[in-house]
Design a protein that fits this description.
mainly alpha, 10 helices, elongated, Required for respiratory growth protein 9, mitochondrial
Length: about 200
């Protein structure tokens, strides 16, 4: 018995060692203690008054989204916000719909230029160079949304396909114009091996 006591550590096993041991085994690590207090509100007692029961019945009639909807603030809307919304309605009566839209790569380039040096690459300069409105530049710079890698790949493929379709449509329109002109002039073209049409 004395030999076994000499092997025992004089310091009791620490909590860290016990936790690291359980972390090694997946069957044991799932048995960690849980905080059961965060599961939600406690069930109501049967001894409640009729007034609270009526309030609960009224709340249950509302949909979940109506119950969670925020109340309108009591303080008035700031003057600056009212002026800005009035200006936006004046400039964009049908809402925001820019005539020219940028690709994701162009938006990323615009953001990186502005981040590199905001004083040189100001909003008016970027609007002029990218041929979009300053409001569009402001919205692009303000937005923080970034797509996931899968979404980005899908968007790139969709944009590439749309660009190729647009190029083909332009080529077909050009070809139609050329054929019309040839018919008017009545020039016969000889077939050759290099012609695609």
């Amino acid at each position: 018995m004395l030999a076994f006591r000499s092997l025992a550590s004089p310091v009791p096993a620490s909590r860290f060692a016990a936790n690291s041991f359980t972390a090694l085994y997946s069957t044991v690590s799932g048995l960690a203690r849980r905080n059961w207090d965060v599961s939600g509100p406690a069930p109501t007692s049967f001894l409640e008054t009729e007034e609270t029961e009526e309030r609960v019945r009224d709340l249950s009639k509302l949909s979940r989204s109506a119950r969670l909807r925020r109340q309108t603030p009591e303080e008035p809307t700031p003057h600056e916000f009212k002026a800005h919304s009035k200006t936006m309605k004046k400039h964009f009566p049908e809402g925001w719909s820019p005539p020219r839209k940028l690709s994701r790569e162009a938006m990323d380039g615009l953001r990186s230029l502005h981040a590199h040096d905001p004083e040189i690459f100001s909003t008016p300069l970027l609007a002029e160079k990218f041929k979009i409105s300053p409001e569009a530049v402001r919205r692009i710079l303000r937005s923080k949304w970034t797509p996931s890698p899968e979404q980005r790949q899908k968007m790139i493929l969709r944009e590439r396909k749309a660009r190729e379709e647009w190029i083909m449509a332009q080529r077909m329109a050009e070809r139609r114009k050329q054929l019309e002109l040839e018919r008017k002039i009545s020039v016969k073209r000889a077939k050759d091996e290099l012609s695609l049409w």
